[in-house]
Amino acid sequence: MTAARQDAPVTAAQPAEGVAVTCHRLIHIYPTATGDVVALSGVDLSIAAGEMLALVGPSGSGKSTLVAILGGLMQPSAGRVHVGDHELSRLPAKGLAALRGATVGTVLQGAERNLLPYLSLSRNIWLAQRAVARAARRRLDPPEAILELVGLAGAGARRVGDLTPGQRQRAALAQGLAAGPGLLLVDEPTSQLDVAGRDEVLAALTTVNAQRGTTVVVVTHDGEVGAQLGRAVTIRDGRVGAEGRDGRDFAVVAGDGTIQLPPETSAAFPAGTLFEVDHTDQSITLRAVATPSSRPGNGGVTNVDDPPDQAV
Ligand SMILES: Nc1ncnc2c1ncn2[C@@H]1O[C@H](COP(=O)(O)OP(=O)(O)OP(=O)(O)O)[C@@H](O)[C@H]1O
Questions:
Q1: Which residues form the ABC transporter domain (predicted)?
Q2: What is the residue-averaged pLDDT of the chain?
Q3: ipTM
C-alpha cells in the first residue's frame, strides 16, 4: 500500500447532516443462564436531527443497552427504533453493518479502546474511513480536517501515547467522526478528565454539532455535561424516567400513558399505592388514598379508611 493511496480521500454512502432518532416502546431482554434480564422495558424517545442530548441515569438502568441498539450493534427484542430513514429492527445484518459504518459513529468508553496505539492519529482515521469506503458515493473529509474539528489541528502525526487524556478523548471523537456520521454516540467521554479536559471535549462536541449538524448523544454520569448539552434524558429501570431541559426538570409521559414518580417519592408512595386522580387542562393531582401493606388477607392494601391524604 503506497503513501499516495493511503492519503487519497475515501468516500461513504450517507449524507453528513444530522439524522433524527425515534424509539417506540423499545424493549430489550438479555437471556442469561440464570434467567432473562430486562434491560429496556419500553423506551419512548424522540431526538431531532441535529440535536445534542445526554443520557443519564443510575448504573444498570439501560443506557449502554440503548446506545448499543442505536449504534446498530444489536437489535431490540421488541419495539421500533428509527435512525434517519432506517428502521433498525428490520435491518438485516448487512444493513446494520453499513449503518455502523456511515450513518452512526460510536465512541466507546475509554478513549484508548477506539484507537490503535501503534498508528498515527491520521492513519487511525484513514483506516476507519477505508472500512466504509466500499459503499463509496461521496467524498469524506481528510483526517486532518476531522482532527481540526475536534481541536487537534496539526496532531495527525502523533500517536495515542503522546497525548494528554483530554486530547486522547478528542482523538477518539475524531475516530467516531471518520466517516461523517449523521449520529454520533459517545459513551462517558469525560469520566477520566479534569474540568479543563471536560470543557475541551464539550467544546469539541459543540463544534461538531454546529459545523456539521451532527446529532450527538452522550452517555454520562456527569450532571454538568447534561446541563451543558441542554437536554438530559434520565433512563431509570429501562425506560425514560425524567428529562431536564435548560435547567428545569420534567416528568415524561411514556407511550403507554405512564409517568414515573421521582425516585425521592418512592419511599412515601411504594408500588401498589392507590391514588385518586384529578386533572385539569394544565395539571394532574394524585392523592394517595391507600398504601400497600404486608398484612396478609387484605389483598395487599390497607389504610383505605385512614388515608395518608398526600398529594404529589
Ligand atoms: N450482556 C449482558 N447480558 C446480561 N445482562 C446484561 C448484559 N448487558 C447488560 N446487562 C444488564 O442489563 C441491565 C442494563 O445494563 P446497561 O449496561 O445497559 O446499563 P447502564 O445504565 O449502561 O449501566 P452503567 O451506567 O453501569 O454502564 C443491567 O441489569 C445489566 O446487568
A1: 24-262
A2: 86
A3: 0.98
